[in-house]
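User: Predict the structure for this protein chain, please.
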Amino acid sequence: MSQRQRADSTGSLGPDDEVMPYSDDETDDELDASSEGEPEEPPEHQPGAQPPVDTRASDLGWSVKSNDRAYHQLPEFQRKVFLFIKKSKYSGNGIKTYKYNALTFIPLNLFEQFKRVANLYFLGLLILQIIPAITTLPWYTTLVPLVLVLTITAVKDLADDLARHRMDKEINNRKTEVLLDGGFQETKWMDMQVGDVVRLKKNDFVPADILMLSSSNPNSLCYVETAELDGETNLKFKFALKITDEKLQQEHQLAQFEAMIDCEEPNNRLDKFTGTMQWSRHSYPVDLDNILLRGCKIRNTDVCHGLVIFAGADTKIMRNGGKTRFKRTTIDILMNYMVYAIFALLILVALGLAIGHGFWYKHIGSLAWYLYDGKTYGSLYRGFLSFWGYIIVLNTMVPISLYVSVEIIRLGQSKFINWDLQMYYAEKDTPAKARTTTLNEQLGQIEYIFTDKTGTLTQNIMAFKKCNIGGKTYGNPMTAKGVPLDRGKPVDFGWNPYADPKFEFMDHSLVACIRSQQDQETLEFFKLLSLCHTVMVEHKEGELVYQAASPDEGALVTAARNFGFVFLNRTQDTITIKELDHEATYQVLALLDFNSDRKRMSVILKFPDGRIRLYCKGADTVIYERLSPHSLHQETTQTSLDIFANETLRTLCLCYKDISQAEWDAWSRKHTAASIATRDRDAALDQVYEQIENDLLMIGASAIEDKLQDGVPEAIANLAKADIKIWVLTGDKKETAENIGFSCQLLTDNMKIHYGEDVNEKLRVRQALRRNVAPTFGNKKKPAEPFFPEAGKNALVITGGWLNEILYEKKKKRRRLRLRRLGRRTLPASPTDGQPINDFEKEMRQVDFVDMACECEAVICCRVTPKQKANVVSLVKKYKKAVTLSIGDGANDVNMIKTADIGVGISGQEGMQAVMSSDYAFAQFRYLERLLLVHGRWSYIRMCKFLRYFFFKNFAFTLVHFWFSFFNGFSAQVAYEDWFITLYNVCYSSFPVLLVGLMDQDVNDKLSLKFPKLYIPGQKGELFNFKKFFISLFHGIFVSLIIFFIPYGAFLQTMGQDGEAPSDYQSFAVVTASSLIITVNLQISLETSYWTFVNCFAVLCSMAIYFGIMFDIHSAGIHVIFPAYFTFTGTASNALRQPYLWLTIILTVGISLLPVICLQFLSATIWPSVGDKVQRNRKKYEMEAEEEKRPPTFQRGGGSRRSGYAFSHSRGYADLISSGRSIRRRPTVAGGARNSIREGENI
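Assistant: Here is the predicted structure, written as structure tokens:
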């Protein structure tokens, strides 16, 4: 079979792919220590080894004293926060994410609202309207809408902030036990302080970053679940120092505990902690294994005690949150520029009309005695007053109601997302939640998606799916006799009392083979799985509970358990299993643990009959190199491995070796010597392991499925068709991330995959070329040549170490710290030392990397830190000017979520940090497809249509005043009645366009998902831009011309049927207003794609409201009550009883709408868009959609590739087991078989 393409490596030494790097996140003490005597490049070191750290107290800037709150309030720990106000540098444990309180809400909210230019403009306009010499409109025409806008926005902001208050209050008011006044007292989280001793119980959340002191478990062992930090549900272990565990078990001992902890300053490194504890005149080193991080959950530990080191904002989980950024949509930004453009246009028009008024008054107005107004102002001053008068008259070009309407539409669209039952996850009762109301239309413009892997794409659940034993493959649906089935049913494991009821397997022939006990290779296969691991077991209420360092290993041991080989118990040097019908205890002579270089683990056991055997499991790439030439089934196993790999299953090879007593004795001496080596111990051990792990005999291979969430491959495929690029940013190791890339079809076998060394070399060549061709500073012209000119698809898989190397991050930090230590300034880099010459070159390196990544079909960044995730998002935003979305489920994704334009949190897991920082939240990744392609696209289309129409109707309304100015001496006289101006945007034309903004859809949700190409116009911003804005402007100009001049012509030299001439100003105002209302309401009807009864009712109702209110305010009764405010007495009834005025209205409306109808018809017929084509065949597509069945989750690949090996990302529990820390008293196991094992076997 063809092998998957790999880009050639340059062969140069580079960063360790398995180490998660930290660049500027690194603490100075770490880099200072690790940089001692280093060359420019970081040195090679043993995988998994921690860099040497100088833990001298002088380098550690954080001091914590136990049981002494007053110590942390001393003056030397105070810092100035404002003027003379000082505060302790030690944060309290309360968190604050809200913006307002009862005192600051009104002033702060008003301040924020008036930072919006339009609101400030209308406030200034209101002030102008109060000035009698300037005003041309009553003050209430501006005050009413302004107060309405401010009130609606304030209520929305208040509701959002109250939700934040509730969430903060819920967290801050959680209870925990704190040691106060000699005893433990229940205390709120917010009242805890640094230096407090706390008691935590099983299933408690850890309230702060705590140094563990003791626990109820053996040797102070404590299991924690880190789902809230990284989305992983497998348990990790922490333990206390031996000295504190022995002496701090009782309450009175803890109350007398007086120690000083000197440690690193608060930072965001989740994988590192360095400090020392001074107690009883002795110093004890403290590291991350002794620290319980805030957000973790205590599991399988009844009670543990700890000392608060970092609280509140200083905790690592909060430090990883990044800055909360104010997010605005591209349409918001565009609208602001358009408002500036309208404002500039308004000033120019008002200036031109003011000049016209001055000229008119000088040559005409001042000479006509009948126009004398009793004022002695000159033409220049009158022109000045006219300018401000026209600013007031034409203010509706910048409509204040626009912002109210936008907020209402966004609120409604958010509710539709919340109410969408197709985004509701019934299994965990989790609906979708729009946590913001300001970004909905941005969902329709996403170009890049950055996603976490664990818990986001995957369920973090491993399932044993298939295996190959002795050359025969098991796992496909088969009967007990080996007859293949099209549709099988799961095996019934009722014969096994220890079976896990959740385990499913479809091949009945494997169970039959095991129960017959005739095939020794099959029995040996599952015996290996039950013995060769670092899993630990607990007995709870008669049930076995396995704790594994990785879910992969847990799945293998669970599979062995179901097939009859049950791991029951282990001690420091024994392991006990039940082999079908009997128990056996094996002596563990040596445990050769997994690490990322070895890619395998082994165990050497002494059997009850005295035999010594090595069992080994690992990646096929390392196992095949160590097989004996006489090993059987190599070819058939290889074929099965290829098949498993194509099915995106994670594979392991299983093998064994019998060892003689003499060989064991000789090797054991070497192993003991390596174990106590003081230098390069890990390297010495690996070398000794190599000597015994050879001449292995193959048993078979296992295949595990890393379960994707339902619908992930289809969602990714559909999003890719919408021209959305998906990048995976994960802390997982390279093989695991790459394997998931194939599982979810992000990577395919026909892609050429480029790795860090290849990428670095291509960028180095491009950089050298640029230096030769364009050495001048400031020349930012990018080379036009693509990085991958050859045909075919490319993918990028890059680790965090290479990312730092490529972007100069780590070199920059190390260089600066080393020079600082030597007391020298940073010298300019030379072109040959691998450093950027200047900031421009560093920036171009980043541009090159982003350009290269964007040429690829898929990008996977693995072993990256939370800060690196955010940096990658920032680079794409900065250099591609693209709209980005980040999705994740853990605290390590928070920074990335906050950095992207849209942040999405996966809810329903234990961890809620990502959800709390997100803009949208739901339970499954597949819902992202619907959020973007349906809700996002609809929101974008609706908002664009709303804005285009809103600008049009206001231009058409306002510019009538402009044309009227040429016939009234540019006197700032309005063309309409005052109340019509006040109510036009509030009552007469708002409801139909609001409904379009809320409910319109060009095609339904099924067709939106069926045709992802419909999403592309939003990415390109085709539906609302400056071109569309000017089209709306010219459309408004055209309609305003028609609305003014046709009635004007109709009123010239006319006479009514009763012999009276109705050509007065008030009748003219009624006719133009009526024509305008009918035109704009019919215009929105032409724009509506999705008609419902509500839309039809809104259009008719708007016109009915207009005529109803007009006849009321033109009545004699209201004029009698308020004669100064209602002056159009009887105008409507007098004008609208004339038939020719109705004909004038009809003619005006017809001429206004006819060009629009013609253009829409020609556009849909001659230049149809994708949406037009889909709409035209909508019925056909809807029928096809109903008949279609959903495709399978994913199709199996055709090429051969190697899947990721099924091990954890770091070492397992081997060190813990061999140290004896995890050993408990052996529980009694049902059946009493344990008593039959002689003590002599446990030698």
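The chain has 41 helices and 35 strands.
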